[in-house]
Write a structure and sequence with these properties.
Number of domains: 2
Radius of gyration: 21 Å
Number of helices: 12
CATH superfamily of the largest domain: Type I PLP-dependent aspartate aminotransferase-like (Major domain)
Distance between the termini: 35 Å
CATH architecture of the largest domain: 3-Layer(aba) Sandwich
Strand content: 5-15%
Structural class: alpha/beta
Number of strands: 12
Strand order of the largest sheet: 2-8-7-6-5-3-4
Bound molecules: pyridoxal-5'-phosphate
Oligomer: single chain
Shape: globular
CATH topology of the largest domain: Aspartate Aminotransferase, domain 2
Length: 384
């Protein structure tokens, strides 16, 4: 039996979420197009709006500030491309970090091809993007800053509140990718002074293929759609709203809001036990900040061992060597290279990510598998 320690890549769908989705797919009263004006459409629409309020409540937003998307990738694309294009008259410069998710970095690449300028900030050796570094990168023509709250590889938490304050002072929009933060860190879009914020259901025990973009009331006229079609979602994201997906995300958001504190209180000691266990071996390093990180991720580098062989030795564990989306490439993680890790250490990195279903027994077994695996590989190929 594989021990699942890859919750940063996908979380299992909560039973209550699956039950609500099942009902949405089978209840004859919920099959109409939620945009339809008849009573059947109204019934579906009622449930869509209830879910919108639940997602809004998770982040301290109003229901009318939530736009449904297919996931955080699409939310990030809509936030960056949609806001940059509509504000192009004011300026054509964006600021982000080199440690962002591929969907943010690729959206920036696309904007550069369209004539925008992008500054990709480095992190410090612990993975932090210092607010002062962000402030120094702002130019008179900067219209948008995009930074993630919790890094998907290391779990490092950025000081979004401080960055929110300085963006507000300078009249620059702030977009936050909160896909890993939701259900783990407190998120209050007003307190943090965030204008746009991306969420993904499958990172918080909801289904894959659904996400949301928060667009603050004040910002909504500063974003243009990326897709064209019907007028759904106030024209910002046309296409028939997927009732069952949305209902699933609503339940997931309600559960995340209710369980966040207790979930994390349970995960922190498990994550610490995992670290205590694997760091008994020499040559095992923690990637990221020792304190400022989310409760679910532990990323370690192992000296003298090739990443591929290590993953093979750990095949009893579902873990990854970097971001799931980069799993196809043999390139060492760019996020870890930013921390100053050598290509070798960045390559021999393992990301463990824990979740609601993780038990202390599984963590103990994971330590055992890791320690015996690393010791065996080191015996086979002793460090030079
Ligand atoms: C998973 C993830 C995404 C992409 O979300 P999808 O819903 O899979 O498109 C974006 N950003 C971060 C930080 C993520 O962890």
């Amino acid at each position: 039996m594989t021990i699942y320690l890859d919750h940063a890549a996908a979380t299992p769908v909560d039973r209550a979420v699956a039950a609500a989705m099942c009902e949405a797919l089978t209840d004859p009263q919920l099959q109409a197009n939620p945009a339809a004006t008849h009573a059947a459409g109204e019934a579906a629409r009622g449930r869509v709006e209830q879910a919108r309020a639940e997602v809004a409540a998770l982040i301290g937003a109003a229901a009318g500030e939530i736009v449904w998307t297919s996931g955080a990738t699409e939310s990030n694309n809509l936030a960056l491309i949609g806001a940059a294009r509509l504000r192009a008259g004011r300026g054509r410069h964006l600021v982000t970090a080199a440690s962002e998710h591929a969907s943010v970095l690729a959206a920036c690449d696309e904007l550069e091809r369209q004539g925008f300028a992008v500054t990709r900030l480095p992190t410090d050796p612990m993975g932090i993007v210092e607010p002062a570094v962000v402030a120094a990168a702002l130019r008179p023509d900067t219209t948008l800053v995009s930074l993630m709250q919790v890094n998907n590889e290391t779990g490092v938490v950025q000081d979004i509140a401080a960055i929110g304050t300085l963006c507000r002072e300078r009249g620059v929009l702030l977009h936050v990718d909160a896909a890993q933060a939701a259900g783990r860190e407190a998120i209050d879009v007003r307190a943090l002074q965030v204008d746009l914020l991306s969420l993904s259901a499958h990172k918080m025990y909801g289904p894959k293929g659904i996400g949301a973009l928060f667009i603050s009331r004040e910002t909504v006229r500063r974003v243009e759609p990326v897709l064209v079609g019907g007028g759904q979602e106030r024209g910002l994201r046309p296409g028939t709203v997927a009732t069952h997906q949305v209902i699933g995300m609503g339940v997931a958001a309600r559960l995340a809001a209710g369980r966040r504190v207790e979930d994390c209180a349970r995960l922190v000691p498990l994550r610490e036990a995992l670290w205590a266990g694997v760091s008994r071996l020499p040559g095992v390093f923690l990637n990221g900040h020792p304190q400022r990180r989310a409760c679910h991720i532990l990323n370690v580098s192992v000296a003298g061992i090739e990443g591929e062989s290590l993953l093979h030795a750990l095949r009893e564990l579902a873990v990854s060597s970097g971001a799931a989306c980069a799993a196809e490439s043999a390139e060492p993680s760019a996020v870890l290279r930013l921390l100053g890790r050598s290509p070798e250490l960045a390559q021999g990195a393992i990301r463990f990510s824990l979740g609601r279903v993780t038990t202390a027994v599984e963590v103990a077994r994971a330590v055992e598998v890791f320690v015996t695996g690393v010791e065996r590989l080191r015996r086979l190929a002793p460090p030079a």
